[in-house]
Amino acid sequence: MTVLPAPLVQLAAALGRLPGIGPRSAERLSLHLVQADKQFVEHLAAVLVGARTSVGPCQTCGALTEAQPCGICADPNRDGSVLCIVERPVDILGFEKSRSFKGRYHVLGGKLSPTQGVGPEDLRIAELERRISGEGVNEIILALGSDVEGDATSHYLARRLRAVGLKVTRLAQGLPVGSGLEYADELTLGRALEGRREMSPG
Amino acid sequence: MGLSTLTTERQTDSVHLVHLRLRDFRNYTRLEVEFRPGFHLLLGGNAQGKTNLLEAIYLIATLRSFRGVGGAQMVRQDASGYFVGATIVGTSTSEVKLYWSVKERRLSRNGTPVKRLSDYWGTLRAVVFCTEDLALIKGTARIRRRFLDLLLAQTSPGYLDTLLRYTQALRSRNALLKQHRLDEDQLAGFTQELVGAGQELMRERRALAPRIAPMVQSAFHRIAEQRDALQWEYAPQVDGDFNVALAASRARERTLRTTVVGPHRDDIQLLINGRSAAHYSSEGQKRTLALALKMAQAEHLTEVHGAPPLLLIDDVMGELDANRRAGFLPLLDRARGAGGQVFMTCTEENWPRDLASDLSRWKVQDGQLRRAVADA
Q1: Which of B63-77, B176-190, B223-237, B285-299 has the lowest mean pLDDT?
Q2: What is the pLDDT at residue B12?
Q3: Number of Cβ within a 10 Å radius of residue B31
Q4: What is the Cα–Cα distance from B170 to B189, expressed in whole angstroms?
């Protein structure tokens, strides 16, 4: 086996720390980079540093943004009385692509996990409560994952926020649109049945 | 496709293991073997690797050892990890690969890594009969719960997911109870999850009881020498509303810092002539009852899936007297008749010659498997 130059090994080690990149891919990428067009690599380095410096969490909602506050928080046309609570900044993207939500968001930054030592103080709940008292919010939509920890976090928030007299809703759980019943697993089907709705008279 | 192939396909509604590959598994350095449907007799002396072979097959079916050991014990001495590969033919063909080492575990089916256990479950169904079965009667409630969970995971879609959810909610809740300052709101959040999954588990376990109890009883009567009355009862620790029971256990769980009530403490009550089988039965009755539980498991699986499970029988024939043997053998015949597959280990001296002659005999010696010559 030939020994790779030290900078190449360093580069591979750094790339290997990225999510989804194993040792093989890291090696392949670093080999590609050291042989690539120098201008391209300089550009890549510049945008990498640039993106990291200019993008950060919105101090209000926690979404990733370049400006403070972010575009959604600053938009006067968004309905400030409805807040949609999500786990991670990326969850906002889905809602925005669907163009079906006109309220604002709040990123929690995770979910309760007693086994991993994540408690309410580690999530952006204090910020949420500050917003609720300051922004005239009257409905909270919980849009967290439906695993045990996500659901427990939803129950927890519902309890804590209802005490303040807010309307708290959560996303319906059920079938993916446009697919047949045969592709739904039992748990999803069970929850879809639980959350069924009366059909409106046509 | 000829007519004969069509008919064979018809018959093989049942699932069977056609190919097994082992690398560094127990005392097998390397093994590559093909199996037909039907009856396989694994003959050999002690410590040659007969049980290890059954253990590997059971591992493919349930992803755990029936000897109750972890992965490290199944790695061949001086090797870093074991590999078990299997080709399973049923309505479709599955190529299963399982690798285990301290650093890495890999499970794939048809080349795709298995992400959710419940997706893998049911690829191969097996029932094992072994000396450890006696613990079902004499052992702790945990062993009987595991039997119940395995049976429900093998027959009720969604049960395994619910069990995993319950276990996770329980673990989280116990972690909260151990914290310095108890956060009531957080506890309530996880309690709601625990109750939801827990009630579902209890409902499934309760629903199984009336279906399995008569099968256990009739299996017991077929092999027992006396007409003892046998009762199987689901004994939930929480009788009634789980929420109410949890609330009532409040003081205790705070002192003990763990969840003290719930389906994780359930049991099965086994009574012979109205008295606890664990305490008031003879050694022979216990053996008979353990065997009856496993026979009922096999019959229930056959009934639910319309095809018999693989039967793995480890050295139990030697322990049975003529009566019980006569009660047990028809089960094997039925499984074989339905196109199923049976693997049975025996020492050379005491293999049951009362079995029909159309069986494959294998000689197991020092981690090698060889086809034995047909009976002279």
Answers
A1: B223-237
A2: 43
A3: 18
A4: 12
B184 interfaces chain A, CB cutoff of 8 Å:
no
Interchain CB contact of B175 with A (< 8 Å): yes
Q: Beta strands of B241-348 (E only): which ranges?
A: 267-272, 275-276, 310-314, 341-346
CB contact under 8 A, B189 and A153: yes
Q: How confident is the model at residue A120 (pLDDT cuts 50, 70, 90)?
A: very high
CB contact under 8 A, A120 and B183: yes
Domains defined along chain B, listed by start = 137-283 (1.20.1050.90)
* A182 contact B CB<8A: no
Instruction: Write out the E strands in A29-175.
Output: 56-57, 64-65, 79-86, 103-107, 139-142, 167-170
CB proximity B179 to A under 8 Å: yes
Reported ipTM: 0.80
Q: What is the mean pLDDT of residues A134-152?
A: 92
Please spell the DSSP secondary structure of A145-199, one letter per residue: -SSHHHHHHHHHHHHHHHTTT-EEEE----PPTT--GGGS-HHHHHHHHHT--PP
Read off the amino acid at residue A68: Q
Residues from chain A contacting residue B169 (CB–CB below 8 Å): 148, 152
CB B43 within 8 A of CB B363: yes
pTM here is 0.84
pLDDT value of residue A195: 78
**Which residues are paired to B20 by β-bridges?**
B33, B86
For residue B376, is pLDDT > 50? no
Q: Which amino acid is at B79?
A: A
What residues in A contact B120, CB-CB < 8 Å? none
**Is the CB of residue B188 less than 8 Å away from at least one CB of chain A?**
yes
For B42-77, how does the pLDDT look when each residue is reduced to its tens digit (9 = 90+)? 988 888 899 999 999 999 999 999 988 888 999 999
Whether residue A119 and residue B186 make contact (CB cut-off 8 A), yes or no, is yes
Torsion angles phi and psi, residue B66, rounded to 5: -80, -5
How many residues are there in chain B? 376
| pLDDT score at B355 | 66
